Amino acid sequence: MLAALIRKEILALLRDPHGLAALFVMPVLFIVIMSLALKDYYSPSTKSLAYAIVNLDAGPQAQTLASQWRTQHGSPATLPADWRAALLSGHLQYVLEIAPDFSTAISAMSTPPGVKAHLLAEPGLEHAALRSIEAELAASTGELRADALQERFMGLTSAGGNSIRKLVSAERVAASVRPTAVQQNVPAWLVFGMFFVITAIASLFVQEARDGTLARLHTIGVPRNIQILSKALPYLAVNGLQAALMLAVGVWLMPLLGGDRLQLAGIHWPALLLMLASISAAAIGFALALACLVRTHAQAAALGAMCNILMAAIGGIMVPAFVMPPVMQAAAAFSPMNWGLEGLLQVLLRDGGIAAVLPYAARLVGFAALMWLAATLLFQRRMK
Amino acid sequence: MLTISALSFQYPGAPQAALSGVSLQVQRGRVLGLLGPNGAGKTTLISHLAGLLAVQQGSILLDGQPLAQARAERPTRITLAPQEYAFYPMLTVAENLACFAAAGRLTGDKKRERIAACLSFAQLERFAKTRAEQLSGGLKRRLNLAIALLPEPELILLDEPTVGVDPQSRAFLLDAVKALAAQGCTVLYTSHYIEEIEAIADDVAILDNGRVLRAATLPDLLAEGGAQMALRIEGSVEAALALLANFGTVQASHDGEIALCLNASATPAGVLQAIATSGATLHMARYGSHDLERLFMQLTHRTLRDE
Prior knowledge:
The complex is a heterodimer of chains A (about 375) and B (about 300).
Chain A (H helix, E strand, L loop, with lengths): L1 H13 L2 H21 L13 E5 L4 H14 L9 H7 L4 E5 L3 H6 L9 E5 L5 H28 L26 H15 L1 H15 L1 H7 L4 H33 L12 H25 L3 H18 L11 H7 L3 H13 L5 H30 L1
Parallel strand pairs in A: 1-2
Antiparallel strand pairs in A: 2-3
Chain B lengths: L1 E8 L9 E8 L4 E5 L6 H8 L7 E6 L2 E2 H7 L4 E4 L11 H11 L4 H14 L15 H13 L5 E5 L7 H16 L3 E5 L3 H7 L2 E6 L2 E7 H7 L2 E8 L2 H8 L3 E5 L5 E5 L5 H11 L2 E9 L2 H9 L7
Parallel strand pairs in B: 3-8, 3-9, 6-7, 7-8
Antiparallel strand pairs in B: 1-2, 1-4, 4-5, 9-10, 11-13, 11-14, 12-13
């Protein structure tokens, strides 16, 4: 009995190209688009920005600064006559203006007043990129001044050998993986895609209630829990296929498209499977509860999509939770999608094992149990 | 076979009962036609028989056994072909039959045999591999019926089975119902088409406002009305009606037509003579035996199509 109903669900799903596209193609597209769009977010490149140098100083330090900048950021654009207009229009993204007395100021005993190296950026340049360039300029200028003072008072010529950059370093603590847009977006849109079964299940359920097939099954003695299970199990398999597909996209497709490769080497697979099963149970439970609650296709489509998007927006799928203000981060903790995402990130970014994902999996399973109970009660009420 | 006694049911929050003291007997191998306007309680009654609603008051016995108990032992003794196309549009005809056969606990050779028999009975063999969504309305109705027949039910509930079908398919379905009854299957048939009930029913029950207004065999119902006349008169209508009361039961319909159920001693000629005597002008007169539609109108004070 159950096998026949599961077979029916699978056949119906396989013959619904639009439904398949929504469940499989849409999350893949999100992964590809968002990963490529946010490619530089985790490793911002200031080297690819179009820039020019206005060097008004013929002194040695000014020449060194310009030379170092060219080395670090590539060849500058030819300075147009009206470079301010070029900045305003975005043709140039920034201009480094070196003041006429830059070299004098660098070698002076005390730091003279006034700006000696000025960065002018186009209006649309991202804040983080501007701050990054500014920090580089400050560091370079500081090194030049340190070199100049060393030479003046100690007679030492460093020729760059005393660079303070060697004294500092920054890295993320992770055994095997590093955060990339792909590493962040694959789990995010995988969770979103898995929850997208909500609309599919709810619409199918409404259709069958309206057609009288649910009632017909009931009249020939098919128990309600078998009817619910026959909906849930095929979508558990759908969620499994979605997960395999999204991970494959991250590992094999993204590098071909110029993105980073999803790194799975060394991750804790049992923890990943536990998280995927928990997310699937929560998504299907929520879908069944919603399916038993709504009465029309319009309600199923609207409410399903709305819940999906709200949970995704709040849960850090669309915008990572860490860039949200504290209030929104607190709100994110109430979204099941956030529990799913955080649990997956524990595995995919932080080398987490079962213990690390257990709090998230427990929340999802608890949520799933609540939703399955609601679905059973609502279904019984509907059939009465 | 089926005995419904004093069945009453009220939906939660509803201002009045959907069924009030309904009592009916359904005999094995007979076709019971259930007539009633929308809201009469037909669907509620069918839902009870299909096991979709629990009995609140009264009782339903299937061969002397409470229905719930009988259904628990073998749910497929009574099956339902609802008014909706209750099957899966994305599946083929054969896949639908296979799915519902398995859901009804048929397996192995028995399953294959029943699928073949139902395909044949509904003359759907040619369409076995056609997706249900691609069938015409008439073929969909046949599939709906075929699915209900899979478990060889003792009683089949057919709820408006000819809605939206062409005349050929309607004729096919009516013949199919007669064939089922001839094979010993009991049929409970609801329809908005009184002529269908007249064509196939052995027994008729007329429901309105949750009550059985009349239940009898079809010949008894038609006979109890006796001969009748339909009249349209103008002028001294009041005087004419006073005279006509001596010839039988007078009832004026909403469209100005007067229905006169004649006494045993009354004759059409006597009626026409009385109208002439009253001074009223006769525009139309029709004489004939009682029919189900007129009886339905008399009992419910409306026609089925007025709903």
